[in-house]
Amino acid sequence: MRLLIYRLGSLGDTIVALPAFRLIRQAWPDAWITVLTNAPVTDKAAPLESVLENTGLIDAAIHYPVGLRDPAQLAALRATLSTSRFDLAISLTAARGLVASLRDGLFFKTCRIPKIIGIPLARRDLVCQPISGGLYESEAERLLRRVGKIGTVDLRDPKWCNLALTPDEAAAAARLLAHARIPDNFIAVSLGATSSLKDWGTENWRDLLARLGNDFPSLGLVLLGSTGDFARNEMFLPLWPGPRVNLCGQTSPRVSAALLGRARLYLGHDSGPMHLAAAAGTRCVSIFSAQSPPGQWFPFGKGHLNLYPHGLYDPARAADLDYQRRAIATIGAAKAAAAATSCLS
Question: CA-CA distance, 340 to 337, in Å (whole number)?
Fold first, then answer.
């Protein structure tokens, strides 16, 4: 059996799809599974296979550039998929509208793949559905519904988002902490944001870290992120009175997950590291803009404090930078500090 899984995105998108990947592998334990995914678009975007490495969930990957429209390149990709003789294609890509879904289905048919499942065509799969309490269903739930004919998943069971970290990855995280003289009692913070629409702002982070450093002077601080986040994070280190280190760009996604699993708390934006921390079992205090519906990208598990500008979600203004900055600014540093303190206490 040869399976093709279609999933775009980077770190957070891969973690959110982890239960679906596990369901597929459980259904076809002996299949050869190839993932069709995008090449990373920035240095902040981790390749999908760097997250799923050592999990046994995929066997190979085929990359293509986002927004591919060149006829020659499309023909080459179609030839690659056709000659691979896949028995089944499973779409786990995010819903991008009915036209994109129909185009994806037609493309896979021209690749001579006899069976295709998971392409979002129904309205409930194209538009995030409200549930209760002003929240919307999670993206993970939407993906799992699309492949429901394969089986069911209880997202309350942490086995479905288990990254299967290896002893070597755990040891690498321990060495980094020991070298920086970070004690077991530390918090992990990620100040980077893949989109300016999600950035809480430098002054808010300064205020929050100053408050927490004053209240928890012996607590260690570990800053995580991409290489591009390193310089920005350096300016925050002097605010912290206890042991501290900036590890931006110095850890792979899976070593980062092992490190996050040792932290008492994760603080950061709605981002890939947030999803990594949740998958590693660490409690999160996360800052959300109103770009996406409340609940869609909340992290796996219980006990997280998701600070969202409730009442401000407006799909028509999802890409309006000024509006999103005003929305996220309604979450003050005092509120974030109180949330973190309640977790640490």
Answer: 5
pLDDT in tens, 297-340: 999 998 999 999 999 999 999 999 999 999 999 999 999 999 99
State the Cα–Cα distance between residues 119 and 125, nearest whole angstrom.
9
Is 84 exposed, middle or buried, given 0-12, 13-18 or 19+ CB atoms closer than 10 A? middle
Any idea what DSSP says for residue 5?
Answer: E
pTM for the full predicted model:
0.93
Within 10 angstroms of residue 183's Cβ, the number of other Cβ atoms is 11
Give the E-state strand segments of 72-177 in sequence order.
88-91, 116-117
Count of Cβ atoms closer than 10 Å to residue 179 Cβ: 9
CA dist., res. 210 & res. 224, Å (int)? 18
Average pLDDT, the chain: 93
Which has the closest alpha carbon to 303: 183, 158, 173, 154? 158
Asked if residues 328 and 287 have their Cβ atoms less than 8 Å apart, the reply is yes
- 243, 182 in Cβ contact below 8 A? yes
Q: Are 25 and 90 in contact (CB under 8 A)?
A: no
Residue 57, both tokens: 């969930």
Burial class of residue 214 in the structure, from the number of CB atoms within 10 Å of its CB (0-12 exposed, 13-18 middle, 19+ buried): exposed
Alpha helix stretches (DSSP H) within 111-222: 123-126, 139-146, 167-179, 202-215
d(CA 259, CA 266): 11
User: In this predicted model, which residue has the larger pLDDT, 22 or 63?
Assistant: 22
